[in-house]
Amino acid sequence: MSDFYNLKVNINKGESTKRLDKALTNFLGKFSRSHIKILIENGNVKKNNKIINDPSYIVKEGEIFEVSLVYIRPKKYEPEELNLEIIYEDEDLLVINKKAGMVTHPAPGNENGTLVNALLYYTKNKLSKINNNSRPGIVHRLDKDTTGVILVAKNDQSHDQLGKQFNQRLVKKEYISLVWGKLESQGVIDGKIGRHPRERKIFSVVPSGGRDSLT
Fold first, then answer.
1. 143 belongs to the catalytic site
2. Catalytic residue among 143, 156, 190, 212
3. pLDDT per residue over 32-81, tens digit each?
4. Cys-Cys with 31: which of 11, 21, 35, 106 at CB 3.0–4.6 Å?
């Protein structure tokens, strides 16, 4: 079974003149508006085979949009008693210092020993459900080999608010990279990051759509 499937949305009179993200949310009721917005920005929405990556695009009656959605295979991940370095905690969120070597959430080849497994045990599964069973509580992620601060939502309201802050670039993120050896060249990589046009499981620099990225 494919990891992605496509849905066609035909804009009716009632949705005409609304923002694209709002109109699609009304049609695709099981997805939050923040989720739909991310799909649009990542280039997963097309009209006449052309990517539309502006969530504020005003739709018109009769327009047909094709939305590429991830097929989520139902899976229940087991809680595991793992060490967590908690920097801050209240009734809405957790701030964790994730250590290098720990995967943020379960994925093929890494279904155990992840931050999600540890959080399920620590919170007794009291985490946001916006990402269903695949990434409960996870608002953003860090690579396996990265040590750093990660925010975890305990409920859907905090998840939605944190997601908006990340999407609106209100959260400032700084990274420190250690390099061994002599750099042969240096410069700036300025492009947009989105899903690879053919290998949909990986991300790459894409010609259109995606999110701005400066390295």
1. yes
2. 143
3. 787 888 889 888 999 999 999 999 999 999 999 999 887 666 567 889 99
4. 35
